[in-house]
Amino acid sequence: MTYCFAPPSVSxxxxxxxxxxxxxxxxxxxxxxxxAHVREMGSDPSREPPCFFLKPADxxxxxxxxxxxxxxxxxxxxxxxxxxxxxxxxxxxxxxxxGHIFGxxxxxxxxxxxxxxxxxxxxxxWDTGKAFDESAPLSPITPxxxxxxxxxxxxxLWVNSQLRQEADISQLIWSCNEIISQLxxxxxxxxxxxxxxxxxxxxxxxxxxxxIRLEIHRLGQLHxxxxxxx
Length: 230
Ligand code: MN
Fold this sequence. Notes:
By secondary structure, the protein is α+β, with helices and mostly antiparallel strands.
């Protein structure tokens, strides 16, 4: 048997400080994981089970530009710490979860907020709002051996040099270890999975020409410009 056409290439992310590529399996995302952001979205930040959704692996953008997507008039940035899973498993205990982390990246959970909000009101899935082409700009992955385990440290995002998001990773409602544990009770994690851990307060719209800069303690910065819809 042979493929009826060439299979798509593997989505892969450079590993900082090496010539290795991290092949991406799935992109999991956590919603509503900083209390101040939960409040700004009009919800109650009491500790409910984490809300998970997915993006396709080929939504990753490694360039410094993403195209303004079709179908929206309200494209939002969400700056997030991203976990790269290097060891798979199911039913992982929180105190064993850090051993499954290969490294970390800076990520933008780009969101067609108008479509997400509309779907939410109708009780429909979020996919068109969250899981679209180029919806996951990402930095190279820094291995844990280089940066250590990230349990605290600043996360900040600027649009055109104006500070819009500022928080500390220690303010995550569900910590990285708890996220891995909870996810692994719903899905078997495999090496190559990425997990967007949620965004702090201060989300907002961007327009064509805007420049986003995300900075996370020990991970450096991610720069992204919003380009015209190609
Ligand atoms: Mn998000």
